[in-house]
Amino acid sequence: MSRQWTVPFRYKGFRWFFLGQSITTLGDWISYVILPVLLYHINNDPKLIGLLMLCRFLPSIFVAPFVGRVLRKFSTLRVMIAADVLQGICYLMFLYTTNVWIIFLLQILIALGMAFYRPGRVTLIPKLVPEESLLARANSYIFGVSQFMMLLGPAIGGLIFGILGLQIGIVFNAATFWISALTLMFVRVDEQGASEQGAAQSQDAQPQAQSAEPEKTFRAKLGFLIGDQTRQLLLFIVIGDVVGSMGFGALNVMFPIVSSDVFGSPQEVYGYLMSALGGGLFLGTMWGPTLMKKISSDLLFCLAMIAGGACVIAFGWSGLVLLSVAMIFLIGIWNGIQDNALITFIQTATSERGDTADVFSIYQGLISATIAVAMIGSTSLASVVGVSKTIVIMGLIPLLIGLCTVAARTRLREKMGKTNNLTL
């Protein structure tokens, strides 16, 4: 048992990558405390906090079609290192401005860096841990540390801000990204072979370069829409997750409203809910690989979405703090399992074509747009039907989408001649 848990760390590149991830995600979550506090100090307007959050989501939507091509052209590692360096510089620039619009611009640049970094991370993991049987476990470590830092980062950020001041907090936050970039420089990935092969092919087919390039770009943008039944299953899974995320994304704005309007204790209950969510996400992310030994990643994804939607509905009807915290903890577990299963499925389904970054970047852009719509729509709906009914309605979305995805998945699996427990 211990061997299974430690095998991914036997790869030197993965060890360095894990260390870098631990540091950069710490900085990312610290920023969730530092930046809103900074903005609120400059201009005491809560609406600006909402605009700041919007600046976190929008860039990934617009750059999604180009991410895969950039990662292939300049190598995944170099792009990720550049993204870390860029984010560190942008965070440091917050020390030298009190202009709200410059702060928004810096946040957009930071989000652009993350828009390239995150697909690169998903693409890099299979290269660092080439054994497919270890892929789910490696994913759980990389994304599990992010969930762990979700618990630790805001607390550290608040502690640094409270004891050492905002300026020291900003410098510390910037340093985490530069240290992460330094650790990535020790990661070695053999990407040269594919590049040389592509270069040789381009020289042999020089007259056809202009006509071939548009087709390649189109396939890169819509890669998961084209192909056999495996790609069709990938399409159902990705679209299902995007639509289903409306129910889970709405919780981002429902938590403070529930804490205040339902329980009358905005600070304490909100803290309990966020801690429960973070703890559940971490546990679910780490538990996912064990479940995927018995259940295929695509089926596990569907079951986790259904269970998560049911827990959202239960959270909406709950009028007790303890029960609500328990439901959010379960939502976190199912979301962690769902995310791990989805990422593993994307990696395996795209391994043959090598378009993991293309698929994940488009998925990331769609998710960002969906969550933004969910946050706006849920607050509008809550003003009409109330917060509890809104949460129940939002919970029905992933529940129903999960059931539909199971049905579509079953039909496609039957056509592919595989049983439910066969892993792709």
Task: Describe the structure in your own words.
One of its GO terms (cellular component) is plasma membrane. It is a multi-pass membrane protein. It is found in: Cell membrane. It is a single chain. By secondary structure, the chain is mostly helical. It has two domains: about 10-190, Up-down Bundle (Growth Hormone, Chain: A), CATH 1.20.1250.20; about 225-415, Growth Hormone, Chain: A, CATH 1.20.1250.20. About 85% of the residues lie in helices and about 0% in strands. The protein has 16 helices and no strands. It has helices at about 1-5, 10-40, 45-75, 75-95, 100-130, 135-165, 165-185, 190-205, 210-220, 230-250, 250-260, 265-290, 295-315, 320-350, 355-385, 385-415. Helix 10 runs parallel beside helix 13. The two termini are about 25 Å apart. Mean pLDDT is about 80; it is low at about 190-220 and about 420-424.
Summed up, the helix count is: 16
The CATH class of the largest domain: Mainly Alpha
The total number of structural domains is 2
3D shape: globular
Give average pLDDT, whole number.
80
Under CATH, the topology of the largest domain is which? Growth Hormone, Chain: A
CATH superfamily membership of the largest domain: MFS general substrate transporter like domains
Structural class: mainly alpha
- Separation of termini? 24 Å
The portion of residues assigned to helices is over 70%
Strands, total number: 0
Radius of gyration: 22 Å
Strand percent estimate: under 5%
What would you say the CATH architecture of the largest domain is?
Answer: Up-down Bundle
SSE pattern: HHHHHHHHHHHHHHHH
